[in-house]
Write a structure and sequence with these properties.
The chain is globular, with a radius of gyration of 17 Å. With about 160 residues, it is mostly helical. Helix 3 runs antiparallel to helix 4.
Length: about 160
């Protein structure tokens, strides 16, 4: 098998289509996590903010597309979506949202222990144990979907 020429595009397989049983298991996990989040009292808007922030960090265009539409569908504002990458620099997000976003970032970036501890400490002040668990599971799950889409190079097509 020859290696690709630098700069040439290697044909990617959609691993979700190539291994549908594994992808179905990931979808089932996502559905279970969505149920856990709802049961913990996290509204869908917060879940979509976490999905979007993690997807921003990972640079997953496909998941950003999907979850922007989902966030708009649950009445998130374009203003908050537009500044989500700089959420720390605005007062547009509630203390609960801020804690969830920091925890999701710490889960995604696997930052040093002190940053991770600070995010967890802040989360403990405004989130219940069930909510902390749910936020971490949302972040873990969207991280997995980001990897599926990034490695598959799922396209984002222009909307009509």
């Amino acid at each position: 098998m020859s290696s690709p020429v630098l700069g040439s595009a290697v044909r990617r397989i959609f691993i979700d289509k190539q291994s549908p049983d594994a992808y179905r298991a990931l979808v089932q996990t996502s559905e279970a996590v969505r149920s856990v989040a709802a049961g913990a009292g996290l509204d869908r808007t917060l879940v979509e903010l976490v999905n979007l922030r993690v997807s921003q960090i990972n640079g997953c265009a496909y998941c950003l597309h999907v979850h922007t539409r989902a966030a708009l569908h649950v009445n998130e504002t374009t203003q908050r979506l537009g500044v989500l990458a700089a959420w720390r620099d605005t007062e547009l997000f509630t203390p609960v949202e801020r804690a969830a976003l920091a925890l999701a970032e710490a889960t995604t970036e696997l930052v040093d222990a002190s940053v991770q501890e600070a995010a967890y400490t802040d989360a403990r002040e405004v989130l219940t144990d069930d909510q902390i668990s749910a936020v971490i599971w949302v972040a873990v799950t969207i991280n997995a979907f980001n990897r599926v889409s990034i490695m598959s190079k799922h396209p984002v097509h222009p909307e009509r």
